[in-house]
Write the structure tokens for this entry.
Amino acid sequence: MNYETENFEESMRKITENSHKIYKENDIAASIASGSFKVDGMIVTPCSMKTLSAIANGYSENLITRAADVQLKQQRKLVLVPRESPLNAIHLENMLKLSKLGVWIIPPMMCYYIKPKSVTDLTDNAVGRILDAFGIEHGLYKRWKK
């Protein structure tokens, strides 16, 4: 087993330990696939262009795309963190379509104006932006002050 595999398995163990519930991708009958199941919103990260396209076009083929569709129909917050680069016109059109529906598109951009000292600084900045979309307090980056 290599470092990347060990790191991934450790990350998945931590996610599982800290999760209230874990669903299978094809469990369309899961509670989160219903509009009557109350949630504040949903974050899809990382979001492939396949998933983004499915959400943009109402193609609910699995639990992720169905739950995202529910967020749209219930007018709840939906945040997508696209992982692809470079982007083509189809990707941009799908993002624009979703943005016009109120979806937050938050690519994990490398923000050099924050003067990062490490990759962790860049990661914290991206995660902080996602948490900001939900109004979740954090100390992941310094905020601008007057």
In short: The chain is about 40% helix and 10% strand. The beta strands are 41-47, 77-82, 104-105. The mean pLDDT is 91. The domain at 42-107 is CATH 3.40.50.1950 (Rossmann fold).
